[in-house]
Amino acid sequence: MFAILVLFVVSFADVTLQAEWTYSQQSAWPGVCNAGLGQSPINIMTQEAIVDKHHAHIRGPLIFRGYNDVPLYGSNNGHTVKWSGVADGPAPVLAGGPLRGNYTFLQFHFHWLSEHAIDGMKYPLEVHMVHIKTGLTLDEALARADGLAVIGVFFLMHRGYGSDRALEEIIPMMPYIVNSSQNNTEPRRIDITRLLSNEPQSYYTYHGSLTTPMCQEVVTWIVMDKPIYISPDQYALFTKVDVGGDYNYRSLQPRNNRVVYRSIASCASIMAPTLPGTLISLFSCLSTSLAAGVNKGVGAFLNIKRKIFGTPAKNCVKAK
Known about the structure:
Elements (H helix, E strand, L loop, with lengths): L1 H16 L25 E2 L5 E2 L10 E4 L4 E7 L4 E5 L7 E4 L6 E9 L5 E2 L6 E9 L4 H4 L6 E10 L30 E3 L12 E6 L10 E12 L1 H8 L21 E2 L12 H18 L8 H9 L7 E2 L2
Parallel strand pairs: 1-8, 2-14, 2-15, 10-13
Antiparallel strand pairs: 3-6, 4-5, 4-11, 5-7, 6-7, 7-9, 9-10, 12-13, 12-14
């Protein structure tokens, strides 16, 4: 019954806000979107992220339960395409890492280009897996600093073998939700683990907000730093989706002295976007940095050079 209530309320919230904001007018977003000091997404600077080697914040490995076979239906809410759990279906549960308690999976959706950036660089696509603290209603979760947990995973474009595996279960559903006026798809059983990084214990985490109105600052973000692959043909399908414009990502927000932690497993080099993805991302970084006045490092040419030509393993700033 709880799962049914939560899914109903979340769907209702999507409908009520659908026509009230656009990505082209982010300065007019309601709620705390333009007043909050803990907003998302942010530019994650690898050299400034802290490895919590004493496990004061990241107290153990992330735990994923029930992600392998989940009945989900696809929809287009006018801002993104998303896949939500059916009312009576089993709900995956996330725990461990920086989380205190269990979090129940609600839905995953996509942003193109990526919303978060690593050292000033964006990726072609980012998926967000939204979870609510188990046992809370949506209203209760939106009133608590730890009410939601969202996993972010980046995608690289690649033409090689296996580059279509991550999305091959949902791509057949895309034509039915290209337009926001189309009905939801029929439920289909999805292996959500395909959307996780191949190294799911390698990530950054920080406290932030929803990246859509009302931008409540109630999210524990877990941003995996090892991306997965998407084929150019698959990516082309996302660019045809009706989201009210050519893109659906929020501008980068100031970090405002928030601490970004990184897992011990993340102390390694970051995979770079492909050249086409890098060129797209460069344009995005330049435009969003001018518009949002984000923190240092965004679009820096040294970071771009490192992303194109690679970089050795990064030194980690460790918590004392």
